[in-house]
Write a structure and sequence with these properties.
This protein is of the alpha/beta class. Helix content is 41%, strand content 18%. It is built from 14 helices and 13 strands. β11, α10 and β12 form a beta-alpha-beta unit. α1 crosses α14 and α7 packs across α12.
Length: 369
Amino acid sequence: MTAKLLNILTGINRPSAPSSGGMILVNDLYGAMPEIHTTFLGREPVVPAWQDAFDQLIALSTTKRPQGPGFDHYVDELTREVAAHVEKVRPDAIHAQYLGYALSLAFARTAGGIPIIAISHGPDVMAAERNASEREAMNEVAAASVAIVAPTSALADRIDRLTGRRFTDRLTVIPWGIPLSDARVRDQPPTGTGPLSLVHAGRLDDNKSTITAVEALALTDQPHHLTVIGKGPLREHLEQRAIELGLRDRVHFDPFLPRAELWRRLPNFDAFVFTTRGLEAFGLVLIEAQAHGLPVAYSDLPGVGGILGGGGIPYTPGDPRSLAVALDEMGRDFHRRKALTKAALGNARRYDITSTGRRLRELTLRVTS
């Protein structure tokens, strides 16, 4: 018996390239989801390889404008453009990425009888917590959706609170994943104790709190080395702070790397440092690190320990002294680090993107039947 081919309309209102965790996730997700036809609404420029995951990629033409005095007019224009695409594509279901953002609002206002599954990525929740108009937009999209997907129960709880607990029965948790078959671990794992070769990868902004890792290195008993991979508004400040702390030779900064290059380099390190101090929707980079055999020193945010299983050591978010203690503990106790590495590899196997795709497809089938 042939499975039903699902016609899905989705999109993210950004240039169509693997430039962020959300963009990388959807590229993996719809490439791994079986028996679907996906139309993706994005923005120019389009990276050619990006199109491989989608049957059709359409570049939106409405001039993008952020929240502000012209936002409502912008959403009206975008809604008219999206309505034409909905009419042409006639999807079985709409997957509205980023709960409450402009494109999701346009989907909510044009879907008619087409079921919407809203998918939260984290930044949408942070925006709704900061701003009343963003919160109003989130509630509008939630009301128009038949299901709301979050990658963790912690994020689902925050959405539930922000929407006045009016849509609790629509919330469902589907953990994110990565293409595990592409991950590799080093042939000969490191042995012995001593200073660690650490890596941190992500956007260099206030919430990611990379400064915690830099300042922790000045407090460790052992001369660990840290490589920071990424870009963001705090890059220059972080470099200057490392110099002020006398860490010029122990902290190295590399630019943002495409995932294939990042994954090629990950097995060369001893451990990953996760420093986010506010909301983290899921932290795909945590699973990427674990899949390459790296234990994680992680800020103990709600839900993160559960994602990592037993493959990490927690520390107090935003506290360099607490992180320094965790790093020295990992460096001194080789047997503990070996056990953490084994646990990390085992835990990562829970998060294959094929499982994420299968569960989202099953949910889509249920809401369209």
